[in-house]
Amino acid sequence: MKKIHSNNYYSKLKKDKNKIKKEKLNLKLKIGFLLLFFVLLFVIIVPMTDKVKDIQYFTNENGSSRLVYDFPSFKHLLGTDAHGRDIFYRLAFGGRVTLAFTFVIVLSELFLGFIIGSVAGFTGGFIDRILMQITDMFNCIPFLPLMMLTAGIMDRFNPGDFQRIVILCVVYSVFGWTGFARLIRGEILNVKNKDFIAAAKTSGLSNIRIVVNHIYPVIFPQIIAVIPFHFARVMLTESALGFLGLGIRYPNPSWGNMLDAMRNLFVIKNYPFAYIPVAILILITTSAFWLLGEGAKEKLQKNK
Q1: How many whole angstroms separate alpha carbon 69 and alpha carbon 10?
Q2: pTM beyond cutoff 0.90
Q3: Which residue from 79, 207, 249, 290 could staple onto 72, CB 3.0 to 4.6 Å apart?
Q4: What domains, with CATH codes, occur in the chain?
C-alpha cells in the first residue's frame, strides 16, 4: 500500500513540475519581473557611482547657503530636498534600505508563521486551539498605536541608527506573522487527511519527516503565490509610517521618510519634484509585487 501511494504521489508531482517548466510565464509575471528588475538595477547600480551624494549637502556657488529645494538640473537630476541633498541619489539609497527592510520583515514573518502554523495544523486538538487563540490575540493589537508607542520609547532612549532599524524589524515581525500562520495551518489541514499522508504514517515515518517531505512540497506553491502580496503590504506600511515619522528617521534615507515633504502644503504646491519621484517608485515596486502575486496565483489555478 505504501509503495503504491508513494509512487503515484511522486509521479504526479514529477509530471506537475515538468508541466510548469514547459509552460511560458504569463503576462503579469513577465511585467512584474521586468519592473522589479529595473527597480533593483536602479537601487544597486546608482549608489555605486557616487557614494558621497547620499550624505553630502550642496550649496550655492559662493558657498553661502544650501541649495534647499533646488529645481532639477543637469547637476541634480531630480533636484535637492529640504536639507540640500541630491534627491536622485537618496532615492537609490532609500530604495536599498526600504527593500532590505521589507525583505527581512517578510522572511521573519514567514519563518514565525511556518513554525506556528505547522504545529497548529498538524497536531490539531488542544494545541491548535491554544495557538489560534494566541494568533487572534495578536490580531487584536492595534498596529498604529503600537508603532507610535515604539517610536516614543526609541525617542526616549535614543538608540543608534542601526539599532533603531533592528527594533522596527523585530516589532513588525513579531506582530505581523499571523496571516502566514493562518494560511499555512489551513493548507496543512487540507492536506494532512489525504491518502498519501496516511500511507506515510503507517510506514512509521516521524511527524517531522511527514511534514517536511510530504506536506510542505504540496503547500509550497500556495505559499509562494501569497508572498509577493506580503512584500507589497509591508512596503506600503513602511512608507505610511515613514511619512508619519514613525519609521526610519532622517538623515537615513528610506522611501517612507522621503514622503515627509508631502506634510508641507507649500512644498506640495511649489516643489512637486520633492515627492513625486519617490511616490512613483513606491507605486512601481508595489505594482510589480502585486503583478507577481496575481501571476503566480493564475499559474497555480491553471495547474490544478
Answers
A1: 62
A2: no
A3: 79
A4: 2-6+27-58+75-303 (1.10.3720.10)
